[in-house]
Amino acid sequence: MGNITNKEPYQQAYYPPAPTGFTRFMRTCVLWQLWRFVSINIKMIKLLSRSHH
Amino acid sequence: MSRIVILGAGISGHTAARYLNKWVGKEHEIIVVAPNSKWNWIPSNIWVGVGQMTEKDVTFDLAELYSKTNMDFRQAKALSIHPDGSADSAQPFVTVEYTRADKAGVVENISYDYLINATGPKLNFGATEGLGPDHGHTVSVCTYGHAKEANEKLQQSIEKMRKGERQTVVIGTGHGMCTCQGAAFEYIYNVDHVLREAGVRHMARIVWISNEYELGDFGMGGVHIKRGGYITNGKTFAESLMVERGIEWITRAHVKKVEAGKIHYETLDGTFHELDFDFSMLIPPFAGVGLKGFSKTEEDITAQMFLPNGFMKVDADYTARPFMEWSAKDWPRTYQTPTHRNIFAVGIAFAVPHLISKPMQSANGTPINPTAPRTGMPSAAMAKAVAMSIRDMLNGAEKPTHTASMAEMGAACVASTGSHILKGTAATMTVFPVVPDYEKYPEFGRDIDLTFGEIGLAGHWMKYLLHHTFIYQAKLRPGWSLLPD
Q1: Is the distance from CB of B33 to CB of B109 less than 8 angstroms?
Q2: How far is B352 from chain A, CA to nearest CA, in Å?
Q3: CA distance B434 to chain A (A)
Q4: pLDDT beyond 80 at A1
Q5: What would the pLDDT profile of B36-72 be if each residue is shown by its tens digit?
Q6: What is the mean predicted confidence (pLDDT) over B338-358?
Q7: Contact yes or no for B384 and A53 at CB 8 A
Q8: What is the ipTM of this complex?
Q9: When you count CB atoms within 10 A of the terminal residue's CB, does the N or C end of chain B come out lower?
Q10: Does B422 lie at the interface with A, CB-CB under 8 angstroms?
C-alpha cells in the first residue's frame, strides 16, 4: 500500500481508491478467478465477433 | 495467375499472408518481403525485458515457415513503390534491397498485381536526443533484441540494489507524440514484480512518465468502465494500481532530451524539469519506414501516397478539422489507397486521420498528446479484412468486400506480471470500439458492456492463453484458421 499515512495532504498517492482486503483476496481466489476467466473469454469472443465485418 | 506482394511480416503482414495462402495460395503467387528473418510476438517482449522469457519463446524463423507453404519469402526491406510501373515496365512494382547476409545490398524490382503495405513503424528514437539503446541512454522493449538488452541492464541495476545502492527506475514514453503506452504500462508492473521477487523493491524508486493527459489514456482518450455502481474513468484504476505498488507518476510530459542518468522534460503547463535515473525504458515515437513512391516517369509521388509522417494514405478522411468535428466516420474502413485500387496499407503502416486522444499543446507550443495506437488485435482484424477483399477481387469483385474500421472494432489489452500460474496478476482491459463513436454511443463513445477492466489471476491466464494461441496460429499449426484473430 505504499506509504500513505493520511497525515500528508496533497500527496499523489492520497487520492486514488485503494483495494480492500476482500478485493485483493478475490483477485487471487482460484474459484472466483476461474469464473472470471470464463466471463472474460465470453466477452472477448463477443468483442471479436463484432469486430469482423 | 496474379501476384500478391506483402511488405512486412509482423502481426498484420503475416496475418494477411497466412489467410491469402489458405484461400488463394494454390492459384496465385504470394511473395512476402520483410527485413527481419524472424517473426516476433511483440506483446511478450515485455517478459523478455524482465528475463522471464527468452528470444526463442517469442520468435520463430520466417523462411523456414514459409518454405512449408505456397508463399515465397524474401528477406529484404522495401525501398519504393512504383504503382504505375516505369518507362521499362508496364507492371507496377516495388523495389527492395535484400538484408539476408548472403544477398545483403542486392536491389531487386518485384512486380505485383496486388500490394499490401504492412511495413509497421520506424522506431524513431532520433526524435528525442539521447533516446534509445543504440545512440542513447535508455532501453526499449520494441524488438526482442531491445528487450534482451533491457533485461541485461535491469539485472545490472538489481545487482547494484543487492549491494545496497539505491536506484531510480523510470519507465514510460520518450516523446510528446508517442503511442504504445500500454507496453510501457505493462513493463513497469513487470519490473516492479521482478524487483519484489529479487527482494530489492525497497531499494528502488519507480517513476512512470508519459505524454498522457491522465493515467489510463493509452492513446484512446481513456475509457469509462462500469464498476462498483458507477461508470468511472480508467484513470481511477490506473492510479490505484500505481499507488498499490508504490509507483510515482508524471503525466502530460514531453521528454526533450536524455543525458546519461538525466531526463529533461517539458510539461503541458510550459515548465521544464529534470529527472535523474539509473535505469530507464522509454518507448520511442513511431514514424513510417520511409518508403518512397514514384510515377511511371520517375517523378517523386511520395507526398501523394504518404502523409509527411511516412504513413500511407488509405480510405480515411484526412481533412484537417478541429477536435469537436472529429467523427468515427473519418477512420478508414477498407484500407485501400485512394489512388490505386490494388494497393492496401494495414497495421501501423496506414495513416490515421487524426489522434483519438484530445490534441494538447504546451504553453510553448509543444504538442504533448498520445498518438493513436494500432495494437495487435486491430492490426490482425484489418489484415484479415484486406485479405478477404483481395481474395474476392481476384474472383471478380470490383471493390473491397470487407471492412475493419477501428471505429467499429474492439481491442483487448492484458498487462500481466509474473510467470507463476497461481501468483501472477493482470490488469485486463477491453474497449469497443477503439475509436469512440459518439453518434452511436452518445454518452461515453463506447459500448459500456464490452468496454471493461479488471484485475486478477484470470487476466494472467488470459495473457498466457493469448501468448500460446497466437504463436500456435502464426506457426500455421493444425486448425490455426479456427482460432480467433
Answers
A1: no
A2: 18
A3: 10
A4: no
A5: 999 999 999 999 999 999 999 999 999 999 999 999 9
A6: 97
A7: no
A8: 0.86
A9: N
A10: yes
Are B458 and A34 inside 8 Å of each other by CB? yes
Chain B's closest residue to A51, CA to CA, is B409
Pick the CATH number of B3-123+286-394 from 3.40.50.700, 3.50.50.100, 3.10.310.30, 3.90.1150.10: 3.50.50.100
> What's the pTM value of the predicted model, to 2 decimals?
0.94
Nearest to A43 among B246, B425, B452 (CB): B452
Check CB contact under 8 Å for B243 and A3: no
- Look at B162 and B412; give whichever has higher pLDDT: B162
* Every domain of chain B and the residues it spans: 3-123+286-394
Written as one letter, the residue type at B143 is T
Q: What is the model's pLDDT at position B401?
A: 97
